[in-house]
Amino acid sequence: MILLENASKLYANKVLALDGASFYIDRSEFVFIVGPSGAGKSTLVRLIYREELPTSGRVVVFDKDLSKMRPREVPFFRRRIGVVFQDFKLLEDRTVFENVAFALRVTESTRREIKRRVPAVLELVGLRDKQRSYPRQLSGGEQQRVSLARAIVNNPELVVADEPTGNLDPDTAWEIFQLLREINRRGTTVVVATHAKEIVNRFGKRVIALKDGQVVRDEEKGAYSNED
Amino acid sequence: MRIRTWTYLVGQSFQGIRRHVHMSLASVTTMAVSLLVLGIFVVASLNLSYVAAVIESQIEIRAYLYDDIPAQGILDLEVAISSLEYVTGVEYVDKDTALSKLKEQLGPQADLLEAVEEMNPLRNSFVVKVEAPEFVALVASQVEELQGVAKVDHRQDLMSRLSAVIRAIRVSALFIILLLGVATILIISNTVRLAVLSRQREVYIMKLVGATDAFVRWPFFLEGILLGLAGAAVASFVLDRAYDWFLANVYVMLPFVPVLTKQPMLQVVSLGLFVLGTAIGALGSSIPLKRFLRV
Ligand SMILES: Nc1ncnc2c1ncn2[C@@H]1O[C@H](COP(=O)(O)OP(=O)(O)OP(=O)(O)O)[C@@H](O)[C@H]1O
Ligand SMILES: [Mg+2]
Questions:
Q1: Which chain A residue has the Cα nearest residue B9?
Q2: Could you say which ligand is closest to the alpha carbon of residue A195?
Q3: Closest atom of ligand 1 relative to the A18 alpha carbon
Q4: Domain end residue (candidates: B115, B131, B147)
Q5: What range does the domain containing B244 cover?
């Protein structure tokens, strides 16, 4: 589903954020991306949903080489991926319902479908009664659940998350990860870049560790680090 | 795109205005004020042009004749003058008509003329109309050469100065309107651009969720048109009222100054403001967006 071949990213300011990373992630996997700050986790995630392009090497998602993708194919590609960000990236001037519905609006879903799917997915993330609230009226954990709801409302094949719990307390973080695991159980591939050491260790899923932009470890049923 | 998507996008353009009331109000106000200033200048120069045209049409040369010319001589002279180049009209005014016209002009003081009435001291004359002020001197000198013409009156220096002034007014009015037009376009597109810049994050998020460029751009485009329409409507309304006020005052205070009637002039000017407002609104909001769409 996701293939990186010697992928490197050199930013315009000459920072080599990713240095020849290679790995393959299969359908329905749950994968953690870990590593110290500045290791290149966010860069990696941005390559997967094609916010950035690799400066060398290949990134292939859904059997498509992202460097060869034409700009007008990109929106249709992104609709197959749900993205969750550390800072939620919600539309501040729209209600919870509209934020989640937006992902369906862009795919031109019918009104009936929107009325059916949005409450269902808000139910799943436990925000059924907050539909009419605005993002700023919600706690951080609630906002992240909205952004998670938006990411999965389209039934994407892949969900990628970049430090989805970076701004949340441990309990709330745990809830978000439970949701991600639930989404994965339903067959969606999940890739999460995170610093949440305890959770990574408890989950016992595949771990890809980065350091200075290189893959230094790639283990099935891995832990956050080797040291303990 | 499907109909339901169009409905949604049109709805979004109204929502966009509602969600950013302050920005929208600022944009409409800026548009209204700058379109109004432009409109006032256009109306003012149209009127100046009109005054100039009226004055130009009244430019005339008076050729006074000797008293002893026979009727046939007068006819010959009329033909001779009409066949001169740049002459657009010749009218014969006999001395009796001239006297009664003078009386009319004097009104209540016409009694003054009673003393001279018996022996009318005025002369028969031709009123010669000329294409433009700059030809007055030439035509006057040619008329003066003709047999039977006693004296030609044409106030040459006044005429040439007048023609210079009229030309200067026309050129500078056009220049000012061009300048104002450019300024209006810059001011409005800048205001609209600022409104769009403040929504960069929104556009970025939309693109990450998989919106196409068209999907993001249409509401901005429609919003720009709506704001442009609103700005032009305010400007046109104020211009309309202001012109009524202007007409009412001119008729009272300067009754002899020729002014254009309200219609069809204001209809045309308003149409221009609407076209300009919506065009700049639409382009000004969708062109700067292009940069953010590259996500
Ligand atoms: N848009 C960018 N332009 C230039 N340099 C960047 C950009 N984004 C990241 N970098 C640099 O690339 C390197 C890797 O950054 P990245 O954000 O991928 O690390 P990270 O592993 O996500 O770190 P963190 O855990 O702190 O989020 C860093 O040195 C960073 O300064
Ligand atoms: Mg990061």
A1: A105
A2: 1
A3: 14
A4: B131
A5: 3-55+162-293
Q: Can you list the domains of chain A with their CATH numbers? A: 28-51+74-219 (3.40.50.300)
Nearest CA to ligand 1 atom 4: A11
Model pLDDT, residue B156? 63
Average pLDDT over residues A165-180: 90
| Chain B closest-CA separation from residue A220 CA (Å) | 30
How many contiguous H segments (helices) and E segments (strands) does chain B have? 11, 4
B87: domain CATH number?
Answer: 3.30.70.3040
Establish if B210 touches chain A: CB-CB under 8 angstroms: yes
Q: For the segment A51-65, what is each residue's pLDDT rounded down to a tens digit?
A: 999 999 999 999 999
Residue keyed to tokens 């009412």: B248
Residue (of B285, B224, B288) closest to B13 by Cα position? B224
**What token pair was written down for B272?**
């221009």
Q: Tell me the pLDDT of chain B averaged across its residues.
A: 84
Q: Is there a single domain that holds both residue B68 and residue B48?
A: no
Over range B72-79, report the average pLDDT: 87
Residue B156 lies in a domain: no
Q: Which amino acid is at A94?
A: R
Ligand 1 centroid to Cα of residue A162, in Å, is 12
Check pocket membership of A8 for ligand 1, CB cut-off 6 A.
no
Residues 6+ apart with CB under 8 A from A206: A29, A30, A31, A32, A218, A219, A220, A221, A222
Please determine, for residue A228, whether its predicted confidence score (pLDDT) is greater than 60: no
How far is B268 from chain A, CA to nearest CA, in Å?
A: 40
Our answer on whether the CB atom of A35 is closer than 6 Å to any ligand 1 atom is: yes
A193 Cα nearest atom in ligand 1: 22
Q: Which residues of A touch B (CB under 8 A)?
A: 49, 51, 72, 75-79, 83, 89-91, 93, 102-103, 105-108, 110-111, 150
Whether residue B250 sits in one domain with residue B229: yes
Q: Ligand 1 in contact with A13 (CB < 6 A)? A: yes
Return residues 16-35 of B near A (CB < 8 Å).
Answer: 19-20
**B172 and B285: one domain?**
yes
pTM as predicted? 0.76
Q: Same domain, yes or no, for B84 and B190?
A: no
Parallel, antiparallel, or unpaired: how do β-strands A81-84 and B87-93 relate?
A: unpaired
Amino acid in position A56: S
Q: Which has more confidence, A158 or A223?
A: A158
Neighboring chain A residues of B211 at a CB cutoff of 8 Å = 75, 102, 106
pLDDT number for residue A63 = 94
Q: How confident is the model at residue B157 (pLDDT cuts 50, 70, 90)?
A: low
